[in-house]
Design a protein that fits this description.
Blueprint (H helix, E strand, L loop, with lengths): L4 H25 L10 H32 L3 H16 L6
Helix pairs in contact: 1-2, 1-3, 2-3
Length: 96
């Protein structure tokens, strides 16, 4: 099944939001190797966020590859178009 372009943008946006959450947790918790380390709850929260980001990023990547293949376009071109569209909306560009 071919994914329409807007779905690709939504997948990319979701992956970026999940990545932002991982970075926020890293900032809040500090290094897991610091003295005292992370609590069990912090570890679980971080690992859950990390898995979500990886899963969403993988899903977005697979969808972009399938979309590019179906349209006969280079994957890198599709990735660039999707990232630009996702970034444009997030920063308040057209369509926001």
């Amino acid at each position: 099944m071919t994914t329409i372009f807007e779905e690709l943008v939504q997948k990319e946006r979701a992956a970026e939001q999940a990545h932002t959450r991982v970075e926020e947790l890293r900032g809040m918790y500090g290094s897991p190797t610091q003295r005292g380390g992370w609590s069990a709850r912090q570890t679980e929260t971080y690992n859950t966020a990390l898995r979500a980001w990886r899963d969403l990023a993988r899903e977005a990547q697979v969808a972009m590859v399938e979309y590019a293949r179906a349209r006969g376009e280079p994957r890198s071109d599709v990735e660039e178009q999707v990232r630009k569209a996702a970034w444009h909306v997030e920063t308040g560009g057209a369509g926001a």
